[in-house]
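Changelog excerpt

This revision adds worked examples to the README so contributors can see how folded entries look when concatenated. The first example is reproduced verbatim below.
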Amino acid sequence: MTAIKLAWSAVGGPPAALERVTTVVREGALTARLPVRELARACTGACALAAAELGARRAGLAAVPGVRVDDGAVAAAFHSERLLRIDGRAPVAFAPLSRFWRAADGWVRSHANYPHHRARLLGALGLPDTASADEVAARIAGRCALDVEETVHGAGGLAVALRRPREWARHAQAAEVAARPLVERGRLHTARARVLPPLDPAAAPLLPAAGLRVLDLTRVLAGPVATRTLALLGADVLRLDPPHLPEPADQHADTGFGKRSAVLDLATDPGVFEDLLASADVVVTGYRPGALDRFGLHPEALAGRRPGLVVAQVSAWGAYGPWAGRRGFDSLVQAATGIAATEGTAGRPGALPAQALDHGSGLLLAAAVLRALTERSYDGCGRHVRVALARTAHWLTDEIRPEPAAGAGDEGPDARLAETDSRLGRLRYVLPPVSFAGGPADWARPPVPWGSDTARW
């Protein structure tokens, strides 16, 4: 079974709809030892097909619009955070302490892009806040990789030991991940949702998510990619962040297209969130499993207060197993699951050509939301959908098979770039890869400064 068939099946799509998908294969796109191109193509295709299906349902079309997946567009989109320019300036991808470190018996990958994660990393290593990268390297070099992993985790920081594929396969979390479906899906509540108004079949472009309200409680990168995609398709997406945890400006700019952005303290202003929830169609969260439950944001609790709600969740390690409560990011999942070892050379760890676990998981989550909305249009019931970067990693390493690479030459990323003015400055950005006949080619508005909008519809 091809990767796109696997992805479409994972989100519950009807097999017959796959005949509406065509692919433009380009040599040189997302080259790696692992089948990254196939993963990226499949996630994008499944998302575009889910969008086309929902658009056809709401517009009363006789057939689902055709979907075109171009490897060149997909590859550019999977590098969107790297290709972004703000007034000509390239974005900052990783902070100095977010990197691989040589340990006494292997390697450790840390993530310290956020100031509080940097402080916890240094504290766990017994170093002051002013410590340099050389001091961190010296401290880690004298310790075992697994010891560093557990010490930093115990301090609330982020670091994982590099594992080879067979080492990860023996880990208890790997077994839990492999036992789950690529996309977890379930029905919430029996109370019926509001009926969405039909779409004008002659509208140009056709926006399948028009009129939908989406609450975006996610952080870099997979969750914001999902909600950025829903915004492209016409949804009113309101991103909510805690006021004490600002998002890095460059990352917010890349994933903020089509959205509004507000700050909200769920602990002190629960009434504001409840007012927003009262007319929301979708809630997307990207925090550690259970981290938001104390605010009443567990899927069943949300659905009990808002019948018909679609709740979507993304996490690093999954909502199960011994690592369910751990923080994580794409780079850490690559290191722990054997991907970095597989892509490495000369005994040094490597990486995928893009943050494919983030981008792929985000597109899968958006596809699952769109399919949930299509299903809801028939029975009125809410849905719960969930993806995990570690499960996407397992799909990449163990389930996807390479597909023939013969095709058109790589058109290069420049063919997929656009420019616009914004309150953040002049932006050069990657156009969306999700494409179907009659659908949108670009977002309706550029990103806004973090937290610059009011928390209301």
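The second example, added in the same revision:
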Amino acid sequence: MILPRSTAVYDNTNDDHEDTARDQSSQPPADGAAPGAASGPASGSGERSESAGQELDKGAVSEQDTSIPAPLETPAAPRKLASTARTRGHLMLALSRVRIATATQLAVLVTNNGVGVGYTLRGLRDLRALGFVDYGQHGREKVWHLTTAGQRAVAEGGDVIVRPHAATGERAIAAGLAPHGLAVTDVITRWGGPILDWEVEVDHTIDKVRRVVSDAVLYRPGRGAEVEFLEMDRFTMSISRLALKLRAYEAYSQATYFEGERGTIGSTKWLWRERYRDSTVFPVVRLVLAGTEDCDALDRRAKLLQQRIHGIRLRVDVAPLPRLQRQPYKQWRWREIGQSDAQVQTRTA
């Protein structure tokens, strides 16, 4: 299914008649029988098996009647699904874009203003029963991710392109990297717009030994570029390491390749334009600072970083996450610590 690009969120609130019908059908019958109970005679009628309570004599060998072949075990039938196909489809597409998320974050992405947490949990439980999603623990919170089968199902749907050998998020959670991934997801959920415009952990190869991996890429045209790069800093890296990451983006913006057959007059082209062909300017790097609620401390960190990357030929915008969380996306204010658009445009022209 193709999700509407004009709608930032999906309305799946309590007026969903299909969900209501499923809820009513899943209620137990009036006589108290459990749903899905067998229609045959119950084994708990009060009668006890003749062998009940009997014990084998010490040293006795248990005999087995082999004259009648043992019946094959029949796998238990899956429980009745309690969510709509629409909800399950939106959840799988959202997880394919952000990789890991909590139920509350997914509710923001797939329901109206995040009010459908109950619908979200219901859909996640159904998807887990079907083998398409699973979760890991981060503290007391469940962190959801697609399984390999879930990734394959999303790829077969054709709505998004799933990269070959893309990680499911399970190993990231097990390795203790959930806080970073959830912080990236939090920014994405607050950014707004169609979730299908996002992709996380995008590898940009510079040469045989260098590359830069973006925490997330927003495929939404603006200011002459068709994408924006998102980086998350949770105060876990030193200023030097953070500056090196931004310098890697600068190296990617300057990398070139030669196009033409050997022995002919070819041309030198920008490497990044081979991937982002519709861009006339190198994309901006949006750096979100987190790890503390003290915005003043994050502002000081941004100032130190600006001094460290002085002269960088790249546009870099920075903002503290706590400040972004208190404002709607249209009111977000970014601080430029690199080049301006005019300077970047002149260099890449």
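Reviewer comment on example two: Strands lie at 133-138, 141-146, 198-205, 211-218, 228-233, 256-259, 267-270, 285-289, 316-320, 335-336. Confidence is low (pLDDT under 50) at residues 1-77.
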